[in-house]
Amino acid sequence: MAAFTCLHLKAHCHKKLFGQSRPTSKHAVSVKEHTLKVLNSTKQAGLSRRQVLAAAPLMLGVHGMVGAQEPSPMEKIKSRGVLKVAVYKDNAPYSSGPNADIQGLDVALAKALAAKLNLQLALLPFDAGENMNDDLRNMVWKGHYLGYGPADVMIHVPVDRYLMNENKQVLIFGSYVREHLVVLHNQSKLSRVDNPEDLQGKTIAVEKGSGAASALMGYRGGMLREKISIFKDGVDAAKMVTTGQFDAAYVSRAQAESAVHMTSDKSAWVLSSVPLPGVMPAGWPLGMAVKADNKELASALDGALSALRQSGELLKLFQSHGLTLAAP
Questions:
Q1: Which pLDDT score is estimated for 23?
Q2: Cis status, amide bond into 98, omega within 30 of 0
């Protein structure tokens, strides 16, 4: 009888010995109510203070069991059998097209990762915000104020120390490629581009709102500005070169390679690196982001990415899109 009584005294002992407990589940509250009834009966049975104290360690076990009933974020994902992945809209060649049929390297990667985790894929395409902090808030750790998101993971996130420090609510990891800025040109029309001065007098296409456009237009007080034209995205800018309408395009390597991939004579085109103030010469790695408390998912995705890389599947994904898998 004494052992039975101690088991039912656990919740009461915790409150008396360790102070006011945190809010608990409905089940835990019912246990406490029942404990009070049992406590009254133990007074009649003559239960000593020592016996009450002895019940405290047992009580901590029950308290932990109640908390453990809440499934982890990863357990919730496994339970529904679906991995929700956020990808950018209008981000060719990584992700572009209508929401119902969005295509690109990031979409293919999302499918491969979900398959490795034995999960179905649900894509959440979204418009880029004012900055990366907005995108991480809307699509990873909080959700958009209009009710869209968050996803389980976001793809195409710069793996950057400053960005990590600015966004403690997320975990950024899983570099899958290193992106660079390049000048795309036809070697028969423009044989060499070693510095911005080589572009003087040449027509240049750039992407609207890109860092590449800003860097090139601001170079030496706008030396090249009059010959620069802005296009909706980098692939469109690159196509202006491959169709012979412009002399050069300053875009990302992936955007340039995507445009070249659509041509019949791929040997005609050159991708040159040009040093510019404010442009990272080594490029930047692209990875993923999950909510900070979902380290289990991050670990699983990291493992899936490693498996894709080691098996050669990741390389095949890039090659099928005409892209170079640059080591991150």
A1: 44
A2: no
